[in-house]
Amino acid sequence: MPQLNPNPWFFIMLSSWLTFLMIIQPKLLTFIPTNSPSNKATTTTKTSPWPWPWT
């Protein structure tokens, strides 16, 4: 069964992860998010109980 032979697939997996970690990830982390979180005050809403018709 060729699926159990890790020789070619381990190198492919290792090289793809190293490519991601060394090249792609630093480029993605340099982007600035367009919607930065703002410090809004949280307002509490007043909730009223639901008028159940069968009680």
TrEMBL record:
Its GO CC terms are: mitochondrial membrane; proton-transporting ATP synthase complex
Its Gene Ontology molecular function terms? proton transmembrane transporter activity
- Domain of life here? Eukaryota
Location of the protein in the cell: Mitochondrion membrane
Q: How does it sit in the membrane?
A: Single-pass membrane protein
Chief location category = mitochondrion
Q: Name one GO biological process term.
A: proton motive force-driven ATP synthesis
**Membrane-spanning residues:** 6-24
Keywords from the named record: ATP synthesis, CF(0), Hydrogen ion transport, Ion transport, Membrane, Mitochondrion, Transmembrane, Transmembrane helix, Transport
A matching Pfam family: ATP-synt_8
Chaperone is among the record's keywords? no
Q: Which family does it belong to?
A: Belongs to the ATPase protein 8 family.
- Per its record, how is this protein called by name? ATP synthase complex subunit 8
What is the protein's species of origin? Steatornis caripensis
